[in-house]
């Protein structure tokens, strides 16, 4: 064999800055979205200073809350290299069941409303998860089918009968509009869920398993990770949070018909992707996704508030969404190139 | 200690070596596996026809099939490029929005007095441009197609809404408007289905019998290896999205003719239907697997089923459930055996004695 | 009861009947979608009408409020050789080719709630109230509730392509220009009959126009979403007056709490009932589309076909809308 | 003689069988591991070694046979059962999580935790650093695994296995991507583990490594156990005969040909941060080897020549014609073929059938009137399968069902069937058994004799020395030496490869 030669290592010293720098970049992604929110906010305020009023900000937070809550579950699912397209339908049916419970059983405790919503969501989440893991079939197909089936079930249940505000206890509705120190209660609730989830996703083994599964499913299996169990759990959480979102929908709008939650799947996936969660799994954070939900909602409201004709809002929102994805990509490409050149330079030392 | 314990001297060389086999060019059994879903689709189609004819005496009439064709025509046309896009492992969710946008372009131009031919040409150019936008972002910037096309679906429909806030009211020239609604004289075949048939034959030939078609499968299964085999992966990606834009704009033109009007909300929500039809046809969402025959069968089932169920006054909600159920079946049925085996193994595994606890390792 | 007893051409022969309605008529009711609460009530009215006449109603539509989703239902009516179709069109034109086929198959065609306009064949439109009346009534209601006829107002509509909404909005604009020159209609926003979207655009509206005084929402989802928002934000409610078209059942609480003083609507059940009678009469040949032709509509009495005007062809007007306020809202249960 | 004490065996696998559909991968898998021994498992490609390993790992459940670990019969339902029983595995193919950090890769599922079962990142990184120190390498535990070189990936795998402190360590070709130094370090670690009483099972196609590190050897052929023997009682020739079932011709056949016309002319080729100022020529009938340490940029040079990677400056011409940059099609049309280094990602479409893989680079030629002829495709595949003595079930089976070495043959067939002017071949025999290796060398030699030009990249010095007419040595993206066959020896190449050159040209 050969003489003892030093192996050229990519990063010479023990305390290499590469990893730290990368960690910093990951964090920078969230900072970037937060910055964008500020930019949009400032721009909208310049056009119309009412946008910065306390009430307007409250509405901004409220408007983003439901989608932000959904991004939590969706992030967990997408991180495992799956996707849950049925969330919109699950929100719809849970909202209706919660509304029905209040309507048909006056005096139902408020807390039970949440329990019912979460239970309905958890049921469908469990079904999605069970089918995906037991049959090992692509979740996109399963949850797309779920979207149709659950919507159909919801339709049979609703049968054209709207749940009216007078059926919803005032105390429950209060969650939708009351504020604490000027911050909407509903937003605080969502914030708590997001922060808890963000912390858990960083700090617990089982949560790290999710990243491992999405990063390399075969290797995860070899590493002895109970992959099917974890994927099932991700769907269960996603469904449960969609159920919770359904309950909050009732609190916020105090009326439910069959359109509740319709189209949310696109909004949520858009937010998750803009938030930097890799659509093919393995990386991304709950905070980034939730911030992106706030960003997209801020854009929507800024457009209306800037007195831009309603006919233009969709086109502009679409263009901004594309720009956001492209910008994010070109940024990460540039950073990757920079890193490579730096490492190349390091090699030459 | 010189020789080893268990398998000392006797190499158990019993029987001839099993793995050296002669060169076998016979059709692989994997083909038969792949064909299985298509066979199932044929069975489902027959079943659908049976259900349809059982419920209504007027089911087996030319009109039913004309209606079925008329309703599925544009979806069918859009499904063909989508099939190829899914084959290379991408997805296009902007198809229905492009249908609306190109229809709107045509409608606006026609309304403003442009000649019909120019209006149609402009619609098709719109498709090319929109497809090129998708293609550029996905192929050359490397953005995930699901995210890009969610964005462009909002964008396309938004632009349609800007240029055509209200549905156009000027009817298209009657000679062409009838193309949208009447069958080819002497038959019960709508024009859109005739267009589809031509495109389907072309697609099938391309996908299954040309070098470029074969490379779609390679790209879908392993893009890097395809690149190393000299396949222009990026360009193929780009071209397929451009093609999808173009074909969807053609569908948009036909759709506008069929409705004798254009609207920015044309085909609202249809993207998921088109995706569902393609997946129901047995095309793998991960790319690299699927046939044109499967998608054609799937389209036929969806079209006939809708007629059968509506004629029998089955609630629209139930129809949704049936659609979802069939889609689910398309992935579950081929995997049912494996799933059953897994469940059985899991149960059997539980019955067996657990592995004994490890004795402590000899390491400190 | 699929109408096989009376074969072909029963409707196309026009008013040559002997004045008795046929029994066993099969009428297809095609609402915008199966879940539209307002039209569910209308369909019930239609069912009641046909029950009185010994016929049947088939309700068929898609789950999405799109023209494409309605087409299979029209086709099914053709295939079932129905006697009449009563439809709330999702698009003014897109259904024409299919409806034309229905017309050719001898099926009488009646539109309600949302009309369509096709060349080549005629149909009867059951107008809930005539367009101008709705427009002027809502503006008058707003001015009355605001207590002033000057200041900024806005409209929260359904979809930007909704024909009936747009017609009413046009009527309002004309009326404001004529009668209330100091009233400034600053914007029209579209909530797509979706609570979440309605809420978003409403919030945008409020922050865009801090001096806004009044909102008209001529759509049930829009007005109830806005009312809910106002009742949750009393400070906003104190400066904004809201009115429009809404269902009493949805608005009861807001009227009682004073967030909304009054709003208008006609009785959707009556609308469907009238449409059912009109369809039965057309199919039986006991009336026709000529201006001045009359028919009897059960408990609602007799109606006369109005002359075509503008985009609208032959039509029948249900009657003026009812205004609901705290004094009468408990009398209605739809 | 070996240090293996006559203890009770740590692990006994007896007459294990495993079939995949019609393929009988393992007919009689038997091996016995004693504490304190390093035990080599040898066999041709496809002999069933990895299958045996996966049975020990709990990945595959055997169809028949028994497994005893630590004296007690066990049944592994999954990889975690094996791990819990003290068996740790380094798989043939790296199994890393590219998105996770290096440390997390090592401790996945057993991250050190603090109160509340929260992961203690600092402790995890420190522990990883410790393992690396034991291996004598420097790797940042907090960097993501994505972008690690193949060698570094393998290091992480080894670290993962080591950190388990297992009683039985199974290594399936761990050295295939390592440099000499790293291999030596690995052997040192193996030595330590043995001294601690663990058993090590080692798979490699490099017999010199087996002689350097193992006490006993088990040989398999065609899925069957052939024999087990102490290493110092068998000769290389005996081992090869047991593996291959026949005597072997020369490992490095070399027909001397007079180099002819210049086929490839690379002049001043550079790409920022990757390589710079690369100039060389390859002539007909000549094998030029690119040598260098892992990460020197050899593969990048090859890929840039072929057009997969971009290049910023310089020209590449084939037979006098200048090739456009970044256009593999043009390179192929000009007669270049590239057998890439990573056959699983780059060489093959694993889920496509063997015949379609073979034909993938020749689709245009197999079409008449734009339509692909399936019969021509199958014929091409059948021809080359025979010529390369491919071992397979059916040509219609996915390429993933082949053993590693046979996969490499498919890649070779895919490119040779194009009849190229210049064959660029990156690590031609990585993971290939001696028998096949000799075959591959013979094939290359005969092609060169027939006038083909070959640019070969190899990390195996004997292969470079045995096959090349000229050796170009790369160091950190630059050519530091050009050595003729006569001048090239281990020492001169290694000196140039590590940048210590003072002698040869630059
Ligand atoms: N999952 C599978 N499906 C079908 N056949 C398989 C599968 N895995 C392995 N085989 C077949 O089993 C045989 C043994 O393969 P194995 O990978 O164990 O060989 P090996 O001895 O490790 O070879 P190498 O030295 O090339 O790694 C081969 O013929 C291979 O084609
Ligand atoms: N200093 C480095 N830092 C980070 N990554 C590196 C470094 N050197 C090499 N790599 C990575 O390792 C891979 C292999 O490197 P390269 O292809 O240059 O090596 P090589 O000389 O061809 O060696 P081999 O092919 O034998 O591994 C490259 O894809 C590159 O991304
Ligand atoms: Mg192996
Ligand atoms: Mg290399």
UniProtKB/TrEMBL annotation, chain A:
The chain crosses the membrane at residues 31-48, 60-79, 85-103, 110-135, 175-201, 231-254, 266-296, 308-327. It is found in: Cell membrane. GO terms for cellular component: plasma membrane. Keywords: Cell inner membrane, Cell membrane, Membrane, Transmembrane, Transmembrane helix, Transport. It is a multi-pass membrane protein. Pfam families: BPD_transp_2. One of its GO terms (molecular function) is transmembrane transporter activity. Its main location: membrane. Part of the ABC transporter complex LsrABCD involved in autoinducer 2 (AI-2) import. Probably responsible for the translocation of the substrate across the membrane. The complex is composed of two ATP-binding proteins (LsrA), two transmembrane proteins (LsrC and LsrD) and a solute-binding protein (LsrB). This is Autoinducer 2 import system permease protein LsrC.
From TrEMBL, chain B:
Residues 1-23 are annotated as: Disordered. One of its GO terms (molecular function) is transmembrane transporter activity. It is found in: Cell membrane. The chain crosses the membrane at residues 35-53, 65-86, 116-139, 146-164, 189-207, 238-257, 263-283, 290-309, 321-340. Keywords: Cell inner membrane, Cell membrane, Membrane, Transmembrane, Transmembrane helix, Transport. The keyword Transmembrane applies. This is Autoinducer 2 import system permease protein LsrD.
TrEMBL record, chain D:
One of its GO terms (molecular function) is ATP hydrolysis activity. It is a peripheral membrane protein. It is found in: Cell membrane. Residues 11-247, 257-501 form the ABC transporter domain. GO terms for cellular component: plasma membrane. InterPro entries: AAA+_ATPase (IPR003593), ABC_carbohydrate_import_ATPase (IPR050107), ABC_transporter-like_ATP-bd (IPR003439), ABC_transporter-like_CS (IPR017871), P-loop_NTPase (IPR027417). Its main location: membrane. The keyword Transport applies. It comes from the Bacteria. The keyword Membrane applies. Keywords: ATP-binding, Cell membrane, Membrane, Nucleotide-binding, Repeat, Sugar transport, Translocase, Transport. This is Monosaccharide ABC transporter ATP-binding protein, CUT2 family (TC 3.A.1.2.-). It comes from Klenkia soli.
């Amino acid at each position: 064999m050969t003489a003892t030669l030093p192996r050229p290592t990519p990063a010479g010293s023990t305390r290499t800055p590469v990893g730290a720098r990368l960690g910093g970049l990951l964090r920078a992604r969230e900072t970037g979205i937060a910055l964008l929110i500020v930019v949009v906010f400032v721009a909208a305020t310049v056009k119309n200073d009412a946008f910065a009023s306390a009430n307007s900000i409250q509405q901004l937070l409220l408007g983003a809350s439901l989608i932000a809550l959904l991004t939590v579950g969706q992030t967990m699912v997408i991180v495992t290299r799956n996707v849950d397209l049925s969330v919109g339908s699950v929100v719809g049916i849970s909202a209706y069941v919660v509304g029905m419970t209040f309507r048909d059983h006056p005096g139902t405790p408020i807390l039970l409303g949440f329990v019912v919503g979460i239970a309905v969501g958890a049921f469908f989440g469990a079904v999605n998860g069970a089918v995906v893991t037991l049959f090992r079939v692509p979740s996109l197909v399963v949850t797309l089918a779920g979207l149709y089936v659950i919507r159909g079930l919801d339709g049979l249940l609703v049968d054209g009968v709207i749940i009216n505000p007078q059926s919803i206890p005032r105390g429950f509705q209060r969650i939708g509009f009351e504020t604490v120190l000027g911050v909407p209660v509903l937003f605080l609730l969502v914030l708590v869920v997001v922060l808890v989830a963000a912390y858990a996703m960083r700090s617990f083994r089982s949560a790290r398993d999710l990243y491992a599964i999405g990063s390399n499913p075969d290797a995860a299996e070899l590493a002895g990770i109970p992959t099917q169990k974890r994927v099932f759990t991700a769907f269960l959480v996603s469904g449960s949070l969609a159920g919770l979102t359904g309950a909050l929908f009732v609190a916020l709008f105090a009326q439910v018909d069959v359109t509740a939650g319709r189209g949310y799947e696109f909004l949520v996936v858009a937010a998750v992707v803009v938030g930097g969660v890799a659509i093919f799994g393995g990386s991304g954070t709950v905070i980034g996704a939730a911030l992106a939900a706030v960003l997209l909602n801020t854009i929507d409201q800024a457009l209306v508030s800037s007195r831009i004709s309603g006919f233009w809002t969709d086109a502009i929102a679409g263009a901004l969404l594309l720009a956001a994805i492209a910008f994010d990509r070109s940024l990460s490409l540039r950073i990757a190139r920079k890193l490579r050149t730096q490492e190349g330079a390091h090699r030459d030392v | 200690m010189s020789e080893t314990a268990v398998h000392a001297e006797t190499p158990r060389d019993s029987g001839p070596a099993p793995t050296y086999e002669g060169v076998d060019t016979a059709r692989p059994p994997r083909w038969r596996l792949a064909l299985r879903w298509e066979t199932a689709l044929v069975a489902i189609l027959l079943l659908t026809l049976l259900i349809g004819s059982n419920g209504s005496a007027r089911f087996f009439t030319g009109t039913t099939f004309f209606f079925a064709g008329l309703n599925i025509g544009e979806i069918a046309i859009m499904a063909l490029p989508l099939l190829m896009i899914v084959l290379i492992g991408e997805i296009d969710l902007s198809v229905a929005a492009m249908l609306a946008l190109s229809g709107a372009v045509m409608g606006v131009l026609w309304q403003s007095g442009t000649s019909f031919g120019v209006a149609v040409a402009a619609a098709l150019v719109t498709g090319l441009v929109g497809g090129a936008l998708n293609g550029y972002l996905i192929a050359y910037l490397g953005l995930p197609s699901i995210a890009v096309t969610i964005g462009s679906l909002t964008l396309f429909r938004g632009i349609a809404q800007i240029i055509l806030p209200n549905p156009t009211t000027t009817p298209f020239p009657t000679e062409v408007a009838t193309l949208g609604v009447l069958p080819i004289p002497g038959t019960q075949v709508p024009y859109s289905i005739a267009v589809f048939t031509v495109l389907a034959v072309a697609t099938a030939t391309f996908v299954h019998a040309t070098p470029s078609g074969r490379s779609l499968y390679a790209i879908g299964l392993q893009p890097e290896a395809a690149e190393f085999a000299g396949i222009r992966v990026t360009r193929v990606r780009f071209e397929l999205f451009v093609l999808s834009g173009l074909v969807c704009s053609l569908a948009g033109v036909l759709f506008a003719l069929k409705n004798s009007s254009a609207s920015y909300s044309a085909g609202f929500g249809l993207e998921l239907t088109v995706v569902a039809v393609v997946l129901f046809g047995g095309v793998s969402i991960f790319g690299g697997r699927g046939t044109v025959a499967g998608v054609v069968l799937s389209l036929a089932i969806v079209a006939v089923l809708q007629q059968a169920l509506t004629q029998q006054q089955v609630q629209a909600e139930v129809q949704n459930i049936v659609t979802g159920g069939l889609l689910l079946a398309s992935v579950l049925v081929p995997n049912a055996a494996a799933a059953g085996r897994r469940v059985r193994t899991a149960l059997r595994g539980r019955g067996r004695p657990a592995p004994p606890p490890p004795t402590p390792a000899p390491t400190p | 009861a699929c109408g096989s007893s009376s074969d072909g051409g029963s409707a196309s022969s026009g008013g040559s009947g002997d004045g008795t309605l046929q029994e066993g008529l099969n009428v297809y009711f095609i609402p915008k979608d199966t879940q539209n609460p307002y039209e569910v009530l209308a369909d019930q009215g239609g069912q009641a009408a046909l029950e009185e006449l010994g016929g049947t109603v088939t309700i068929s539509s898609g789950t999405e409020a799109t023209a494409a989703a309605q087409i299979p239902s029209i086709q099914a009516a053709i295939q079932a050789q129905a006697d009449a179709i009563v439809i709330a069109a999702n698009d003014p034109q897109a259904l024409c080719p299919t409806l034309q086929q229905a017309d050719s198959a001898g099926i009488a065609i009646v539109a309600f709630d949302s009309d369509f306009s096709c060349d080549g064949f005629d149909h009867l439109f059951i107008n809930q109230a005539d367009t101008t009346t709705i427009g002027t009534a809502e503006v008058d209601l707003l001015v009355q509730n605001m207590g002033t006829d000057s200041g900024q107002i806005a409209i929260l509509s359904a979809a930007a392509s909704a024909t009936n909404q747009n017609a009413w909005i046009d009527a309002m604009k004309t009326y404001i220009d004529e009668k209330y020159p100091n009233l400034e209609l600053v914007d029209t926003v579209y909530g797509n009959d979706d609570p979440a979207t309605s809420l978003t655009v409403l919030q945008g509206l409020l922050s865009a126009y801090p001096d806004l005084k009044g909102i008209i929402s001529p759509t049930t989802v829009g007005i109830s979403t806005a009312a809910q928002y106002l009742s949750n934000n009393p400070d906003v409610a104190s400066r904004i007056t809201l009115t429009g078209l809404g269902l009493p059942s949805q608005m009861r609480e807001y009227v009682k709490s004073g967030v909304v003083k009054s709003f208008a609507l006609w009785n959707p059940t009556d609308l469907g009932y009238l449409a059912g009678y009109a369809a039965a009469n057309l199919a039986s040949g006991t009336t026709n589309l000529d201006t001045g032709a009359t028919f009897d509509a059960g408990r609602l009495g007799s109606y006369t076909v109005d002359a075509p005007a503008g985009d609208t062809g032959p039509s029948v007007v249900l009657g003026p809308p009812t205004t609901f306020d705290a004094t009468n809202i408990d009398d209605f249960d739809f | 003689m070996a240090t293996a004490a006559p203890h009770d065996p740590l692990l006994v696998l007896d007459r294990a069988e495993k079939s995949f559909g019609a393929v009988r991968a393992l007919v009689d898998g038997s091996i016995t591991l004693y504490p304190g021994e390093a035990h080599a498992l040898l066999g041709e490609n496809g002999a069933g070694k990895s299958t045996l390993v996966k049975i020990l790992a709990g990945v595959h459940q055997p169809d028949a046979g028994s497994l005893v670990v630590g004296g007690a019969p066990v049944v592994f339902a999954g990889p975690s059962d094996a791990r819990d029983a003290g068996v740790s595995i380094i798989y043939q193919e790296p199994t890393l999580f590219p998105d996770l950090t290096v440390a997390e890769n090592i401790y996945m599922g057993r991250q050190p935790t603090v109160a509340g079962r929260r992961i203690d990142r600092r402790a995890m990184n420190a522990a990883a650093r410790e393992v690396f120190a034991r291996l004598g390498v420097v790797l940042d535990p907090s960097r993501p695994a994505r972008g690690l070189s193949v060698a570094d990936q393998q290091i992480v795998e080894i670290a993962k296995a080591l950190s388990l402190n297992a009683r039985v360590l199974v290594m399936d070709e761990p050295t295939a991507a390592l440099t000499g130094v790293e291999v030596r370090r690995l052997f040192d670690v193996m030595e330590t583990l043995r001294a601690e009483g663990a058993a090590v099972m080692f798979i490699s196609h490099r017999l010199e490594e087996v002689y350097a590190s193992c006490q006993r050897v088990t040989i398999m052929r065609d899925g069957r156990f052939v024999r087990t023997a102490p290493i110092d009682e068998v000769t290389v020739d005996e081992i090869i005969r047991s593996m291959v079932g026949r005597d072997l011709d020369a490992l490095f056949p070399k027909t001397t040909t007079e180099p002819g016309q210049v086929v490839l002319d690379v002049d001043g080729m550079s790409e920022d941060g990757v390589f710079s100022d690369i100039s060389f020529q390859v002539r007909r009938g000549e094998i030029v080897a690119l040598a260098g340490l892992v990460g020197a940029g050899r593969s990048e040079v090859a890929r840039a020549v072929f057009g997969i990677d971009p290049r910023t400056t310089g020209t590449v011409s084939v037979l006098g014609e200048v090739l456009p940059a970044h256009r593999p099609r043009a390179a192929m049309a000009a007669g270049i073929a590239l057998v890439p280094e990573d056959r699983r990602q780059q060489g093959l479409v694993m889920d496509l059938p063997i015949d379609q893989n073979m034909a993938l680079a020749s689709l245009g030629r197999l079409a008449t009137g734009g339509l692909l002829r399936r019969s021509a495709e199958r014929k091409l595949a059948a021809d080359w399968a025979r010529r390369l003595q491919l071992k397979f079930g059916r040509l219609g089976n996915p390429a993933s069902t082949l053993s590693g070495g046979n996969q490499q043959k498919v890649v070779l067939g895919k490119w040779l069937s194009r009849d190229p002017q210049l064959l660029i071949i990156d690590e031609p025999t990585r993971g290939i058994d001696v028998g096949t290796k000799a075959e591959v060398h013979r094939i290359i030699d005969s092609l060169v004799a027939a006038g083909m030009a070959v640019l070969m990249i190899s990390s195996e010095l004997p292969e470079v020395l045995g096959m090349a007419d000229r050796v170009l040595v790369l160091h950190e993206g630059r050519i530091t030496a050009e050595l003729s066959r006569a001048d090239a020896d281990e020492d001169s190449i290694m000196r140039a490869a590590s940048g210590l050159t003072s002698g040869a040209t630059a």
